[in-house]
Please model this.
Amino acid sequence: MAKKVRQSPKMAGKVRQRRTTAKKNRPSSQEDRQSSVDRYTHQPGTIPGFLYISPDSPPPEISLIDYNAINVVRKEIATPEECAFYLDTQSISWVEVQGLGDEGILRRLGNVFALHPLVLEDIVNVAERPKIEEYEAQLVIICRMVVPKKAEQGFHSEQVSLVLGENYLLTVQEEPKYDCLDSVRTRICNNKGIIRKRRADYLAYSVLDAIVDGFFPVLERFGEQIEDLEDEVILNPSQQTLQKIYEVRRELLQLRRYMWPQRDAINSLIRDGNELIRDEVRIYLRDCYDHTIQVIDTIETYRELTSGLMDVYLSAVSNRMNEVMKFLTVMSSIFIPLTFIAGIYGMNFNTEKSPYNMPELNWYWGYFICLGVMGAIAISMIVIFWQKGWFQNFSKVNSDRNK
Model:
């Protein structure tokens, strides 16, 4: 039986340092292909509750939105202990933690909210699959959030952890600069809708709904990219076109990996009873679940389109090769008889030895007659090929390329 080896924090720090060095030395293209699941994994055999924090994670920034039906307070929190004051009030407190770069602050935050060590591990080790975990007086929701990149194709992805209590919601994100929750903050601060008249479970629903709706702008950009690829595949296919198709297909597969378990997690919130989720909020979660179904259907549609684009690309390349071969065949067919005639009259048999040794060599107009016969054969073959429509495909392909 293999012996289980537990990794000490010192050894884990060395492993993180080696991974950071390897990541810096890795080419950028290879780094782009590396998924977030591959980047943030700790070594097997670590003790329960071990917090693996990526060396390039930004330090935590804690903010608070405390509200009720009448008032709202929004402020920055300097220390995790300041949150304890707002947890004892009757208002709803939304504590946001953006960044995972300080283990000490995170453990102090876990003490303030009485988080189980495994909950803190799930929050910090951001390779978790979207899921729902129930604890005493708390409901933990792990989900994935995507934000489209501004200046280029693709998207940013990060894990968002929600800890729901009776009168508070704790959310923890990886990065402070990538976010799609501004709509929820605006609704709270401007008192839009019914969010300030509801409890913390409705706030959790609003955050989940904003995260799910954040997939639609990303998918809209993928739709535009697929349309451009369709035109490129038809008009001017190249090796770069095939590479773009593979990249789109790989990113869609990554989105699919994010949304499928997220759909199951939201479905479990609707199906399984929990005292922190009221029946009136469970109805709203059904709408959120419908949005996840729409996202999954769109992803599957785009994946089928990319598969079709690959088939179209292969067909276009094959047809292009066939046109080239057809053109070469036509040109060879025209010049083969001419080469045959030139080969015969290039043998130069001596006519003085026999009158049957190519008497045409002594004709006065023999050279021009030979050229005329060769020209007549070439023109006749061109006319025959034109009547068969072989040259029409060539002209059509050239006109499409010029467009």
About this structure: The longest strand covers residues 138-148. Residues 1-40, 397-403 have pLDDT under 50 and may be disordered.
